[in-house]
Amino acid sequence: MNTKKKALKAAIPHTIPVLAGFIFLGIAYGVLMASKGYGALWSFLMSTIAFCGSMQFVAITLLTSTFAPVQTLILTLLVNARHLFYGISMLKKYRGVGRLKPFLIFMMCDETFSVNYSAQVPEGVDKGWFYFFISFLNYSYWALGSVLGGLLGNFITFNTEGLDFSLTALFVVIFLDQWKERKNRVPALLGVGAASISLVIFGPSDFIIPAMILILASLTLLRRKLDPKVEGDEQICI
């Protein structure tokens, strides 16, 4: 078995929970796009070129309202600012992957970050291709779901309220899976605690960025205790 096939075979099981969530949520997105007059082709282009998940749902409103490029830019930066923390956290994981790094950066999303950060590369499997196939499969699932939704949206109409909760459910499944596999659960508890504190202080609409900053600071300060193998001259990377 060659390097790529071996990495693909190892990556597929890690993406199954994401497949279940992305197909359903992608269909919801495609249906919403179709309800605003944007067919399957537009859903496909948005999902493959923009590929920004939650921002794509926001963009449906932006596409059907008065053109406001400055406000759109600011809103997009705020919604996707969490990716700054994802990038910092993946510095060590993506080190040495060579020409695959630009693709890994482009295909990064919440679910892919969660899976790639927690997944252990099997022995004998190329790290770069392993991370690449996890990222590419998740990227493909989202695009496929969007297209299916765009096609179905032309034939059926129903109340879509609550469909976006599937994303929350997907995060819960990924969290529980990591909780079962990891012996050191302190980082998970820190994450839950930081999110809870930020939610109380800043409210449901503004807690994400403060929570990410608090998580980053906490894990950085406690890094040596959480990971005794960390060397003093190593890059800061949670």
UniProtKB/TrEMBL annotation:
It is a multi-pass membrane protein. The keyword Transmembrane applies. This is AzlC family protein. Belongs to the AzlC family. InterPro entries: Brnchd-chn_aa_trnsp_permease. Pfam families: AzlC (PF03591). It comes from Cellulosilyticum lentocellum (strain ATCC 49066 / DSM 5427 / NCIMB 11756 / RHM5) (Clostridium lentocellum). It is found in: Cell membrane. It comes from the Bacteria. GO terms for biological process: L-valine transmembrane transport.
